[in-house]
Design a protein that fits this description.
Layout: E1 4-5, E2 10-11, H1 13-22, E3 29-30, H2 34-46, H3 54-76, E4 82-88, H4 90-93, H5 96-111, E5 114-120, H6 127-139, H7 150-160, E6 165-170, E7 175-176, E8 185-186, E9 188-191, H8 194-205, H9 218-231, E10 235-240, H10 245-250, E11 256-260
Parallel strand pairs: 3-5, 4-5, 6-10, 9-11
Antiparallel strand pairs: 1-2, 7-8, 10-11
Helix pairs in contact: 1-3, 2-3, 7-9, 8-9
């Protein structure tokens, strides 16, 4: 989900306002944007970009952008609802006790009238250490998640709380057979079984080339995480961030919907 107006190099207040108006307790938001928002803030204040090792620069920008990101959401979420920042890393989901702790935290939030805003904790995450930790767990036969991709984090969270619906917001209307032809939007991927949906998703992946922005993993990865969520019992909606959540849920606006037995 793009939270920045590329032409102006500023936060897209319309996206934040629309999301803020729609969010309610019982919903969870996995957000991106901290690094880019931090970068823009640093440039505005210092007049230049940071230089140095790429991972360190990303960590520094993310640390600066986290507070701005949360403050911007706070401006637009209804005042009667509390917001809770939840910063996560791969280790939190690859450890049963940590997974249970996060699940309980998120479930309590809904009961307490608050909305969790979840983001990957880039400022304290080192790529090389992460790779070594994941390799060690795989060598021991564990199935692990990395969660540096927000779509993967969203799927892991959806599975964790047994979410009925997962919405992946993006800068397109959904999944296309030809990304240069809007008329090829795939509006529905459904069937009576998960196997039927898996076959359709596999075919759709053959049409997915490239990503909507630098740093994104593209429609192929989005479909892979969407399929995982469907396998875990959720309905998945892939749609443009300019639309209201309710309109995406009802299919009132163009989007791609995936799920068993949906119409």
């Amino acid at each position: 989900m793009a939270l920045i107006q590329k032409e102006e190099g500023v936060i897209d207040q319309n996206i934040f306002q629309r999301l803020g108006m729609d969010l309610r307790p019982g919903m969870l938001l996995v957000t991106s944007g901290a690094a880019e928002i931090g970068r823009l803030d640093y440039i505005q204040r210092m007049g230049s970009e940071l230089t140095g090792e790429a991972q360190q620069v990303k960590a520094d920008y993310s640390a600066q952008g986290q507070t701005i990101l949360m403050d911007t959401y706070r401006q637009f979420v209804r005042p009667e609802y509390g917001l809770r920042q939840v910063l996560v890393e791969h280790i939190h989901f690859n450890d049963p006790q940590k997974r249970a702790h996060i699940r309980d935290l998120l479930i309590r939030a809904a009961k307490q009238g608050t909305i969790p805003i979840i983001n990957y904790n880039d400022p304290v995450s080192d790529a090389e250490i992460r790779k070594m930790e994941l390799a060690s767990q795989r060598a021991n036969g564990h199935c692990v998640v990395e969660c540096v991709d927000n779509d993967e984090t969203a799927e892991v969270i959806a599975d964790l709380v047994n979410a009925k619906t997962m919405i992946l917001l993006t800068s397109t209307e959904g999944i296309y057979l030809d990304r240069d032809d809007p008329s090829t939007l795939v509006r529905l991927v459904t069937g009576d079984t998960v196997d039927e949906i898996r076959a359709q998703v596999t075919e759709l992946m053959e049409h997915c080339v490239g990503a909507s922005r630098e740093g994104a993993n593209g429609a192929r990865a989005k479909l892979a995480y969407a399929l995982r969520a469907v396998e875990h019992g959720a309905t998945v909606i892939i749609g443009h961030a300019r639309h209201h959540i309710a309109d995406l849920q009802t299919g009132a606006v163009p989007c791609t919907r995936l799920g068993v037995g949906i119409r």
